[in-house]
Write a structure and sequence with these properties.
Elements: H1 2-11, E1 17-23, E2 28-33, H2 43-47, H3 63-66, H4 74-77, E3 96-103, E4 106-112, H5 121-135
Antiparallel strand pairs: 1-2, 2-3, 3-4
Helix pairs in contact: 1-5
Length: 136
């Protein structure tokens, strides 16, 4: 388990991912993702050196503040679809939660919104594909 979590932790810090906080014992990673290609400054900004040193991403919430909303067990599997605009607790929380469950040799990695709700299938697939690519 330690090796699997360490490998995932490495992948969550590469290629557009920013890790805000990790709870390895619980298998929770609070991360954000920005497509590196979309965030590159254009030729005009590069010419005048604007945006070459962007500020690091930050979040107003800690993993401990988000954890109470996170469904557990079977409820995590059947969580509702994400609708960030309607969240009343910790409104406008950025990023995603990577949730690792399972036993030795059989882990399941899920990516959810910061409230533990399911993402749109195309969004989840894209993020998991980037994570998987980072593992190689």
């Amino acid at each position: 388990r330690v090796r699997a979590l360490a490998t995932l932790s490495y992948a969550a810090k590469q290629d557009g991912f920013t890790t805000f906080e990790v709870d390895g014992d619980a298998g929770l990673y609070y991360v954000d993702y920005r497509n590196p290609e979309e965030n590159k400054p254009g030729w005009f900004k590069r010419l005048f050196r604007i945006g070459l040193n962007p500020k690091p991403l930050v979040t107003p919430y800690s993993l401990e503040q988000l954890r109470p909303q996170l469904p557990a067990g079977e409820a995590l599997e059947k969580a509702a679809r994400s609708d960030r605009g309607r969240e009343k607790v910790n409104p406008d929380a950025p990023g995603y939660l990577i949730v690792v469950t399972g036993t030795d040799g059989n882990y399941v990695v899920r990516i959810r919104d910061p409230y533990g709700k399911r993402l749109a299938p195309h969004e989840a697939r894209m993020l998991l594909t980037v994570l998987r690519k980072n593992l190689i």
